[in-house]
Amino acid sequence: MSKIKKLPIYEARKIAAGEVVERPSNVVKELIENSIDAGASIISIYLEDGGKKLIRVVDNGCGMSEVDAQLCFEHHATSKINCVEDLSNLQTFGFRGEALSAISSVSQVTLITKEQSANQGIKVVLEDGVIKDKCDISVGVGTDFIIENLFYNVPARLKFLKKEETESRQIINLFQAFCLSYQNIHFKLFADGKLMYNCPVVQDLLSRSAQLWDHNLAQNLIPFSEQNEGVVISGATSDHQFTRFNKNQIFFFVNGRWVKNHGLVKALLKGYMNVLPTGKFPAAKVFILISPELIDVNIHPKKEEIQFLNPKKVENLISDIVKKSLENHLSKQIKSDVYFASSSVKLYKDDKPFVAASQTTFDFEQLPFFEPVDQHSMESHPVLFPNLEKESLKASALNEIKTNEAVKKMTSSSDGLQLATERPNLVMPMDEQIEDKNIAKDYEIIGQFKMTYILLGKADGLFLVDQHAAHERILYELFSKRFDEVAKVKLIFPVIVKLTEANLNLVLPYLEILKKNGIDAECFSKDQLVISSTPVHLKDVSLDNLVSQLISWIEEYNTVDKNEFFKLINEKLQAQMACKAAIKAGDKLNTEQMQQLLNDLDKTDNRFSCPHGRPTGWLLDNYEIEKKFKRKT
Ligand code: ADP
Ligand code: MG
Question: 77 alpha carbon to ligand 2 midpoint, in Å?
Answer without folding.
Answer: 10
